[in-house]
Amino acid sequence: MQPTTSTKRPRPLSPHIQVYRWEITMALSILHRMSGMALAIGAFVLVWMLVAAAIGPEAYAFFQKAASHPVGTLFLVGWTFALIFHGLNGIRHLFWDIGRGFEIKTAKESGWLVLVGALAATAALWWYVCPWSDVDSMLIALKQF
């Protein structure tokens, strides 16, 4: 069988991601995938907490100690951001599913709204949850990290 003329021509190559100029929509697409992976990993931590609570006070105390460590707290804050971001961006995708918000300007604006909203909601939630009564206590806790 002889090759056709279309197979003799070199095929076009897709440019690498570094060729493109980064835009908010590109970054949020990648961040959405990363937040999904973080949620999957965080699900194991949630199971660890539930199993520790079911086993007894000693196991749960160990979990609390790990979660209250600065690295554990950083993980929980990151997981909270991933949960909120993934949820808000999922709502954005639902609007896309019904054909709304595909215009370039609207897609960029809604992307920034999702990102800023997720950051603000995460900060507000952790500000409410944390036992810091004042900024000095928070700074002392951050210095331990």
Automatic annotation (TrEMBL):
Q: Is the keyword Endoplasmic reticulum assigned to this protein?
A: no
What is one term from the GO cellular component aspect held by the record?
A: membrane
Q: In its keyword annotation, does this UniProt entry include Metal-binding?
A: yes
Compartments in which it is found: Membrane
Protein's GO biological process: tricarboxylic acid cycle
Q: Which of UniProt's keywords are assigned here?
A: Heme, Iron, Membrane, Metal-binding, Transmembrane, Transmembrane helix
Segments passing through the bilayer: 36-55, 67-89, 110-129
**What does the record say about how the cofactor binds?**
The heme is bound between the two transmembrane subunits.
* Pfam families per the UniProt record, alphabetical: Sdh_cyt
User: By its UniProt entry, which SUPFAM superfamilies does this protein fall under?
Assistant: Fumarate reductase respiratory complex transmembrane subunits
Which cofactor is essential here?
heme
The highest taxon in the source lineage is: Bacteria
Question: Which membrane topology describes this protein?
Answer: Multi-pass membrane protein
Q: Enumerate the PANTHER family for this protein.
A: SUCCINATE DEHYDROGENASE CYTOCHROME B560 SUBUNIT, SUCCINATE DEHYDROGENASE CYTOCHROME B560 SUBUNIT, MITOCHONDRIAL
Q: Which family is annotated?
A: Belongs to the cytochrome b560 family.
This protein is called what? Succinate dehydrogenase cytochrome b556 subunit
